[in-house]
Amino acid sequence: MKSDAYELIKATERLPSPKGVALEILRLTEQEGTTVDALGAVIEADPALSSKLLKIVNSPLAGMSRKVASLSRATVLLGFRTVASLALGLSLVSDNRSSSCEGFDYDAFWSESLARGVVSRHLSRIIKDFSPDEAFTCGLLSQVGRLAFANAYPERYSQALAVIGDDHSELSEFELELFGICHNALAAEMMADWHLPQLFRDAVRAQEKPDADTVEAESRVQKFAKILHLAGSISEVLISPTVDPETLSTITNEAFQLGIRPDVLQEAFDAVRSEWSEAGRIFSVPTRNVPTLAEIHSRCTKRRLDLADSA
Fold it and tell me: What are the structural domains of the chain?
């Protein structure tokens, strides 16, 4: 059941939503009896979308052992739901690159969101409890509530972001006071309208505080919420020119809670750097060159020593 706050925002008719071919793909995947050929025909009606989908399938993101030349084959290998979710992500990124919300940096938002998606996918491959392809889409869209506020209430949200500044730790509470719903809950309700799995919607709702009393301990929802939380922490390192030691320590601790050793975390981070750049080219989203995790640690240590010497 949708919340009253969500229905009010939805009534503005400014929420980001899939259009055209992406919307038809979602509709077809919900219908019984839809064939691979029927889905392929719809996708091929949008050459730009079909080209990007094939690029994703044949990139390191999909981890295929051989090249895939047709969308029909890609659909067989990935499954209807995965193809639909990837099309949804591509559609939303393509159609939501600007609006009148002056305080909202759309390129920075999608760059961070893409990083979250790539990291969520990689972490899911390590943990092996979730579909990496669906984890990618969930990570990509996990912050879509922020985009929704920027689109639906550009002036009010711009003012809110100006008050918050660079510290987003209190953003959810601020949104709750202004709109009666925070961006995590808003994203979860939007994802319900897009028929994304309940598990991922619940995890998105809980991603900011996965250890909260409202989240069942040791459940799959909590585990994926922790993946999303860690993906957010790692994406902060990917997008930031400078990183403080506390952030690196937080990442190590969060990874440990998921059973990921420091050496495995370092290996994953270094793999994610190139995957993020590759995904950026496919989605036409800006990324940046990122040092290895070992180099980042080294720079943090040097900066700390320099500060101590100058004190």
Answer: 4-16+96-310 (1.10.3210.10), 17-95 (no CATH)
DSSP helix/strand/coil, 188: helix
Express as a percent the part of the chain with pLDDT over 90: 58
Q: What is the residue-wise DSSP string for 83-137?
A: HHHHHHHHHHHHH-S--S-TT--HHHHHHHHHHHHHHHHHHHHHH-SS-HHHHHH
pLDDT tens across 12-54, in order? 999 999 888 888 888 888 888 888 888 888 888 888 888 888 8
Torsion angle in degrees (nearest 10) through CA of 97, 98, 101, 103:
60
Q: What is the pTM of this model?
A: 0.92
Helix (H, G, I), strand (E, B) or coil at 142: coil
For residue 120, the model assigns a pLDDT of 97
Collapsing DSSP to helix, strand or coil, 195 comes out as coil
pLDDT band at 244 (very low <50, low <70, confident <90, very high): confident
Give me the residue label for tokens 């050496």: 263
H runs (alpha helix) in the chain = 4-10, 20-29, 36-44, 47-57, 71-78, 80-95, 106-127, 132-141, 144-152, 154-164, 171-179, 183-193, 198-206, 220-239, 245-257, 262-283, 293-310
Longest Cα–Cα distance in the chain: 71
Q: Which residues contact 75 (CB under 8 A, 6 or more apart)?
A: 36, 39, 40, 83
